[in-house]
Design brief:
- The complex is a heterodimer of chains A (528) and B (303).
- Chain A is an alpha/beta fold and 528 residues long.
- Chain A is built from 15 helices and 20 strands.
- In chain A, helix 15 links the parallel strand 19 and strand 20.
- In chain A, helix 6 packs parallel to helix 7.
- The two termini of chain A are 48 Å apart.
- In chain B, the strands form three sheets. In chain B, strands 2, 3, 4, 5, 6, 11 and 12 form a seven-stranded antiparallel sheet that branches. In chain B, strands 1-14-13-7-8 form a five-stranded antiparallel sheet. Chain B has a two-stranded antiparallel sheet with strand order 9-10.
- Chain B contains seven helices and 14 strands.
- Chain B has 303 residues and is an alpha+beta fold.
- Chain B starts with a helix and ends with a strand.
- Helix content of chain B is 31%, strand content 28%.
- In chain B, a hairpin with a 2-residue loop joins strand 2 and strand 3.
- The chains are: A alpha/beta (528), B alpha+beta (303).
- Chains A and B meet through loops of A and helix 2 and helix 3 of B.
């Protein structure tokens, strides 16, 4: 039997991730901080030297610009995975233990491979931001000689063995079995009724049903059952074969979620293109988070879905975007939701698209570093997309008070995320313009707007009485009188973020927490 | 008696500091013999006479770091502008975070060895995006030895600086950047409402320079507390003593003596310091040293 001492190693690289707090080229709070040994652990607090997640709890699910409602309501991930981060280790081992060094609130689930580990994260139960410092993998190193390798194969790599592939349910049904002599009552049910029953099954069960009998196999192929497909949950097993399997069935595809899938397969981009062009004429919703393979020809294919309502391309870098024509996407005119979270979309590409979509309601432009001037985008939105309800531009480049003020023309706005938008420039009367224009505001994120002071925020309290969530992280210029007024005068307020607002004493926060128990008041500071 | 005890305490602290530094920055054994590297030593004092809590990388409002990554050895100092104390802001915080961030950037390899001003700029922009709002302003000087081509790349904002001595002569010396007398160029993050009134220089206004170094060259990186109080000839004669020195503890002794001299002269009310001369040239009649925080990083090039 193969024996070897335990090897402990820290992550040496971060391969992929879905969420982050800070811009791509910045170090603080970035996923790069997972590399190597812990730096802050065992200190407790929210440190820039750790990998910090942006969302926590259920609060952000209010924002449709950011949160994608599940496409397959009958196939929901029991773990509730929302985000992941994949780390690589120097040496492949048979894992025995994984240590995750956290410096702030956390709860997560883990699925693992041999030398890379993907931490799947579910933040919805969390009280506040979570911060990771390092990941330590402990295990026996992979053997070098072939003999030892065989030993390993004999034991089977358990973590891979537990993964069932959805392709397992191959289309061939073994007709030679003569076991079933019992009466098949299902034969008496009309076809439509069985389809209706099958409609409640998730993908895995559907595949299993296909193996039961010829009749079931046939029914399980019905394209009515494959209208809404979400493969995000099965990212580890989706490859070209899976797409082949689905291609015959998806004649009537409406919603397609292929997030996180296909990044390990070289032929996937080509296959995906083929799959898409043959099945997706009637598509209304598409989500392709972390699809690193996307290029201009895929974009051109999207534009051939005239009914597209929702387009979500999170964490995508389109490889040859600079060669794409600015009008590539302008055939899409029914869009309601556009999510370009952390993509390389450019102003040239975005503005024509916004101009032809008068029904647009939700727009996410977080971390879009290629958009040189956010003011220009806002100008177009204020003119052409009057119905906009949700706007998100976390860490926007070149946002000025003029641009923010223009958002005041969008009277339907309910959800406004402008985190770290004006952290240096003076905000002047931008907030006042928003407060007077957007009286329906329910969620407002102003994280890191350092130059703000009480007087600039007061119009907000006086006009936006429907506010439920207000984020004032890292604003030093607000006083406790202002916070008191906020708590008293906003009847619907549920969340108030006051972390790193050093001007407000902790004792005061404790008092407020007692006297306003229905309001969640967040407060965290770096504690050395 | 009390002052003797104080002196002893300060000196022993300086020496302790030196040892703490040996482990982090001067470990010649890890290099191949062909690559040049820096042997360095650090010493400094806070301007405050009372003993404060000692934090590594900080002397009063001054901050420093030494770090290395693959093909580069980096030294840096920053001097927090004391005027912020009047606004209830700890001036040491900004300089400390600026240097700490530089150090992290280097350890993660997020810098170009030939571009130290980019390093300062990156560090500055990182601070802008901290959740904790760090306010204040600081001068800064960063020196990078690119081991691949034995060239020293420098960036300097304000009146901290460096000096390179070879064979008893100054080969290179940083230029002071001042808006007006005793008001150096500075990177700053002013509190809300003060933006218009505060002198703030962009990181790209740093003066950069590069020049080849030879075996044995002595590099001094220090804050203005040193340059304002020690006459140049005194500095050069001290630096010449360690020409070609590879023993970190002997280097430490010289660093200690430079810092100690600077400290003593800074409290000497009759001494005509370089600061007093400069003040006189600007029409201000004053005499004596300039009490200030003092940071000395002394390094020799070993090839």
């Amino acid at each position: 039997m193969y024996k070897c001492s335990e090897l402990e190693q820290f992550a040496d690289r971060v391969l992929e991730f879905t969420t982050r707090y800070n811009s791509r080229n910045q170090l603080s709070y970035g996923p790069g901080n997972l590399r190597g040994k812990y730096t802050k652990y065992p200190s407790y607090g929210d440190f820039p030297e750790t990998y910090t997640l942006r969302c926590y709890g259920e609060w952000w699910k209010f924002s449709e610009a950011t949160y994608q409602k599940p496409y397959m309501t009958n196939d929901v991930d029991p773990l509730g995975t929302e985000d992941f981060v994949t780390v690589h280790f120097n040496q492949a081992v048979l894992p025995t233990k994984i240590y995750i060094y956290e410096t702030y609130t956390l709860e997560q689930s883990v699925s693992c491979f041999v030398d890379t580990i993907r931490l799947e994260l579910n933040c919805s139960k969390l009280d506040h931001h979570s911060c990771f410092d390092a990941v330590l993998l402990s295990g026996r190193p992979a053997p070098e000689s072939t003999f030892q390798l065989k030993c390993f194969e004999a034991f089977g790599l358990p973590q891979i063995a537990t993964v069932t592939t959805i392709c397992d349910s191959n289309d061939t049904y073994d007709s030679s079995s003569k076991r079933s002599r019992k009466k098949n009552y299902f034969k008496k049910l009309p076809y439509e009724v069985i389809v209706q029953i099958f409609y409640f099954l998730d993908l895995k069960s559907l595949c299993r049903c296909a193996c039961v009998s010829k009749q079931w196999n046939e029914i399980a192929r019905d394209s009515l059952l494959y209208q809404n497909i979400s493969l995000k949950k099965y990212w580890y097993t989706v490859d070209t074969r899976a797409l082949d399997f689905l291609q015959n069935r998806c004649k009537n595809l409406k919603k397609l979620d292929l997030s996180w899938c296909g990044n390990d397969d070289r032929n996937f981009p080509r296959k995906f293109y083929e799959f898409f062009t043959s099945t997706c004429q009637n598509l209304t919703h598409i989500s392709l988070g972390n699809a690193t393979y996307l290029n201009g020809s895929h974009l051109a294919a999207f534009s051939r879905c005239p009914d597209l309502v929702e387009l979500r391309l999170r964490n995508v870098t389109i490889s040859d975007l600079e060669f794409c024509h600015a009008d590539t996407l302008t055939k899409l005119t029914k869009l309601v939701t556009l999510d370009f979270y952390s993509t390389n979309i450019t102003t040239n590409m975005l503005l024509p698209l916004l101009k032809v979509n008068p029904n647009l309601k939700y727009l996410n432009l977080d971390f879009c570093d290629e958009i040189e001037n956010m003011d220009d985008v806002i100008e177009v939105v204020a003119e052409y997309n009057k119905q906009i309800v949700g706007w998100s531009s976390w860490k926007a480049k070149r946002l000025s008070s003029r641009g923010v003020g223009l958002l005041g023309h969008c009277h339907c706005l309910e959800d406004l995320d402008l985190g770290w938008g004006l952290h240096v420039l003076p905000p002047e009367n931008a907030i006042e313009k928003i407060a007077l224009g957007c009286k329906r505001l329910k969620r407002l994120i102003l994280s890191g707007w350092r130059p703000l002071v009480d007087a600039m925020l007061l119009p907000l309290i006086e006009n936006c009485k429907q506010l439920e969530q207000l984020d004032l992280l890292s604003i030093k210029g607000i006083s406790k009188e202002f916070v008191e007024k906020t708590l008293n005068e906003l009847p619907n307020l549920r969340l108030l973020e006051l972390s790193f607002c050093d001007s407000i004493p902790v004792e005061k926060i404790e008092q407020w927490r007692i006297s306003f128990p229905h309001i969640k008041i967040q407060r965290c500071s770096e504690t050395e | 008696m009390h002052s003797l005890w104080l002196t002893g305490r300060l000196l022993s602290r300086a020496i302790w500091n030196g040892f703490a530094n040996i482990s982090s920055a001067a470990d010649p054994n890890v290099h191949r013999k062909t690559d040049p590297f820096l042997v360095s030593a650090v010493c400094g004092f806070s301007k405050e006479r009372k003993i404060q809590r000692l934090i590594k990388g900080q002397f009063g409002d001054d901050a420093w770091f030494t770090a290395r990554y693959k093909s580069a050895d980096v030294l840096g100092v920053a001097d927090g502008v004391g005027g912020w104390r009047a606004y209830g802001i700890d001036p040491g915080e900004f300089s400390m975070h600026l240097m700490k961030t530089c150090e992290r950037l280097i350890k993660l390899g997020r810098f170009t060895p030939s571009n130290p001003s980019e390093l300062l700029a990156r560090s500055y922009y990182e601070l802008l995006h901290h959740k904790k709002s760090i306010l204040g302003s600081s001068t800064a000087c960063v020196v990078i030895l690119n081991r691949e081509n034995s060239t020293l790349y420098t960036a300097n904002i304000g009146d901290s600086g460096y000096m390179v001595v070879r064979g008893g002569r100054i080969i290179h010396r940083s230029e002071e950047q001042q808006h007006y007398f005793n008001t150096p160029f500075q990177l700053s993050l002013p509190p809300p409402g003060y933006q218009a009134d505060v002198l703030s220089d962009q990181p790209d206004s740093a003066i950069t320079d590069n020049f080849p170094v030879e075996d044995g060259d002595v590099i001094l990186v220090a804050t203005d507390g040193v340059f304002d109080n020690l006459p140049q000839n005194l500095l050069v004669s001290e630096l010449t003593k360690v020409q070609g020195e590879r023993c970190a503890s002997r280097l430490q002794m010289v660093a200690n003596s430079i810092a100690w001299m600077a400290r003593n002269l800074s409290f000497d009310e009759t001494f005509v310091s370089p600061f007093a001369e400069s003040a006189f040239a600007n029409g201000i009649n004053t005499i004596g040293g300039k009490p200030d925080d003092i940071t000395v990083i002394l390094a020799t090039v070993a090839i």
